[in-house]
Design brief:
This protein is α/β, with parallel strands linked by helices. Helix content is 30%, strand content 22%. It contains 13 helices and 20 strands. The strands form three sheets. Strands 1, 2, 9, 12, 13, 16, 17, 18, 19 and 20 form a ten-stranded mixed sheet that branches. The chain has an eight-stranded mixed sheet with strand order 4-3-11-6-7-8-10-5, covered by helices on one side. The longest helix is centred in the middle third of the chain and has 20 residues. The chain is elongated, with a radius of gyration of 25 Å.
Length: 502
C-alpha cells in the first residue's frame, strides 16, 4: 500500500458512518417523509439549500477540489455526508457511497533541463513543453521567422532546432486556443519530418494571451485511466513554447539549444460518489434514472490578482448543489423508477470518473434508462440556458429531448441557446462533460448548462458570482425531466441512427 492510499484511507476511516449504513441498535430512526399532495416534489428544491451547499463546496476550505488530490477526496466525503443526511441510500461499492478508481498522471520531471544559448529556462514556467515526452537534444538553433514554406526553404534545418514566431489566422468561428494547439502540433510534425530535432515557438500577441491563461494546464502534465492513450510515453523531438518577450534573444544567430527532458508517472486515487432513492414500482424500480454531475475542479495554481485557489463555483459546484437538491426532492416523493445519483471524480482531467463508471457501473448497465447531466448551471442571462444533446448529430434520444422540452415549458421556460450544441460550434462543448461516455454507449443522455463565461477556469469563478435563482430554475428543470422519466411506463427510446461526428 503506497503512501497516497494510506493517507486516503486514514482520511476516510474516521468518516465511515457517512459511507456505510448503520446497523443493529445503532440504526437511527429517520423521520417519516412529509406527505405531499402535489403531483411532484419540486417545492423541495429551495434556494437556501442551494446557496448553502454551493458556498460550502466552492469555498476555500476545499482548495479547488483538484482531481486526484486529498482536496477532491475531502470534498467527496462532504458530499457523501450530505447524501446520508438527506436520506439517500449508498449505491457505490461494498455498501458505501464511494467507487474509487485510479488515475494515471504523466508529467515532466523537475530535474529536466532546458537552455537556449545563455538562457537557462525553467520548464513550464519560462518555457512550456507542449507534450510530456523524453528527449535529449544538443543542437544549433536556427530562426525561420514565421515559418512559412519560403522562409524554411532558405535554411538547412536537418539536425537543427527550428525557432519561429507563432502566426496564423484561424478560420471563422474557430476558438483561437484550439487553432493554436492544432497549428503547433501540425507544423511541428512537418518540421520534424523534414529533419528538425526540436521546434521552438515564440508567442505573438494572441498566443501570449493563451500562454498566460492556459499555461498551467501544461505544467500539470497529462492524465488518463490506467492503460489509456495519455499514459504512453515515448522519446520524441520536443515542441517548446516561449513567451512573446523571448523574441528579442531567440532571433540571435549562433545559439545552441540543449534539452534533457525526462518524464515521471504517478497513480492517484479519485472517486465517484453514488447514491440512490429506490423506486416505488415493483417492476420499474429495477431501472435507474441517472442524475450526473462532477465534483472536481482545478485546485491550487498560479495566483491571479493574488488568488491561487481556483474554486470552480460554477464549474461545477453549481451542478453538485443542484444534484443534491434533486435528491432531496426524490427522497420527499420517490418516483416509480429508482433515482441514481453519480458525482463523477476527475472530470477536469478528461472525463475520467464518468468514463470509469460508465464502463464499470454499480448497477446493471442495461438498467440505466437515461442520463441527465448538470454542468455549470449558474451564470449568464437569467432567462436563458442550453440543452446539449438536443439536436443532431448530438441527439441520441428524441424521446428524452421531448420530455426535457416539456419540462422546460412546465417549469422555468428558459429561452434555449441552440448554437453551442451544433457540430459546427468551435468549443465542441458537447464533448466536454460527463454525459458523453454514456451517450457513446447508446444510453439516452442530455446535458443541462448555462454555458461558458469570462471567469471560466480562473480564480474568479467564485460562489458570490452565481445567480442562485437561475441555478434553482435549472435544477427544477432537471428534476421535472427526471420525474417524467421516472414515472412513465416506457423508458426513453434511443435514436436508432445516432452517430457522433467524432
Amino acid at each position: 500500500m503506497n503512501q497516497v492510499y494510506r493517507t486516503t484511507i486514514g482520511l476516510l476511516v474516521s468518516g465511515l458512518t457517512i459511507a456505510m449504513p448503520l446497523s443493529g441498535s445503532a440504526q437511527q430512526k429517520k423521520p417519516a417523509p412529509k406527505k405531499t399532495t402535489s403531483a411532484d416534489a419540486r417545492d423541495a428544491i429551495r434556494e437556501s439549500d442551494l446557496k448553502r451547499d454551493l458556498f460550502a463546496l466552492a469555498g476555500d476550505h476545499y482548495r479547488g477540489r483538484e482531481g486526484g488530490t486529498l482536496d477532491e477526496l475531502r470534498a467527496s466525503a462532504w458530499i457523501a455526508e450530505q447524501m446520508r443526511a438527506i436520506g439517500a441510500q449508498p449505491a457505490g461499492d461494498d455498501g458505501t457511497y464511494f467507487q474509487f478508481f485510479h488515475i494515471q498522471r504523466t508529467r515532466i520531471t523537475k530535474g529536466s533541463r532546458l537552455s537556449i544559448g545563455s538562457h537557462q529556462l525553467k520548464v513550464n514556467e519560462d518555457a512550456i513543453i507542449t507534450v510530456p515526452g523524453i528527449s535529449s537534444v544538443n543542437a544549433p538553433m536556427v530562426f525561420v521567422g514565421t515559418g512559412t514554406p519560403e522562409e524554411v526553404a532558405k535554411v538547412d534545418i536537418k539536425g537543427k532546432a527550428v525557432a519561429l514566431v507563432f502566426s496564423g489566422t484561424p478560420p471563422a468561428s474557430t476558438i483561437f486556443r484550439y487553432f493554436l494547439n492544432t497549428t503547433m502540433r501540425t507544423r511541428s510534425a512537418e518540421l520534424v519530418k523534414a529533419g528538425a530535432v526540436a521546434v521552438v515557438y515564440v508567442s505573438d500577441a494572441r498566443a501570449q494571451e493563451i500562454f498566460n491563461r492556459w499555461g498551467t494546464i501544461y505544467e500539470r502534465g497529462r492524465y488518463d485511466l490506467p492503460g489509456g492513450p495519455n499514459t504512453k510515453v515515448a522519446e520524441q523531438a520536443p515542441t517548446i513554447w516561449l513567451p512573446e518577450s523571448a523574441l528579442s534573444w531567440v532571433q540571435q544567430a549562433g545559439q545552441q539549444l540543449v534539452a534533457n527532458i525526462n518524464v515521471e508517472s504517478f497513480s492517484y486515487p479519485s472517486v465517484n460518489i453514488v447514491a440512490k432513492v429506490p423506486g416505488t414500482d415493483a417492476k420499474l424500480k429495477a431501472e435507474n434514472v441517472l442524475f450526473s454531475t462532477h465534483q472536481d475542479h482545478d485546485g491550487v495554481r498560479r495566483a491571479v490578482a493574488g488568488d491561487s485557489i481556483w474554486n470552480g463555483a460554477d464549474d461545477n459546484a453549481t451542478g453538485c448543489a443542484g444534484t443534491l437538491a434533486v435528491m432531496r426532492a426524490f427522497v420527499k416523493k420517490p418516483g416509480r423508477r429508482t433515482a441514481l445519483f453519480v458525482f463523477h471524480g476527475a472530470e477536469e482531467r478528461g472525463l475520467l470518473g464518468s468514463r470509469y463508471y460508465s464502463a464499470t457501473p454499480t448497477v446493471p448497465k442495461e438498467s440505466i434508462v437515461a442520463v441527465l447531466n448538470a454542468e455549470m448551471i449558474g451564470r449568464n442571462a437569467p432567462d436563458s440556458a442550453a440543452l446539449l444533446g438536443s439536436q443532431r448529430p448530438h441527439r441520441n434520444s428524441q424521446d428524452l429531448v421531448n420530455l426535457a422540452m416539456t419540462a422546460n415549458q412546465t417549469g422555468p421556460k428558459f429561452k434555449l441557446d441552440t448554437l453551442w450544441d451544433k457540430a459546427t460550434h468551435p468549443e465542441g462543448w458537447y464533448f466536454r462533460s460527463d454525459h458523453l461516455p454514456y451517450a457513446r454507449l447508446g444510453i439516452p443522455a442530455i446535458c443541462y448548462t448555462t454555458l461558458l463565461h469570462k471567469d471560466y477556469h480562473t480564480p474568479k469563478d467564485e460562489p458570490d458570482r452565481i445567480n442562485i435563482a437561475k441555478m434553482a430554475n435549472v435544477t427544477r428543470w432537471i428534476y421535472l425531466t427526471g420525474w417524467a422519466v421516472a414515472n412513465r411506463d416506457q423508458r426513453p427510446t434511443p435514436d436508432k441512427d445516432f452517430k457522433l461526428e467524432r
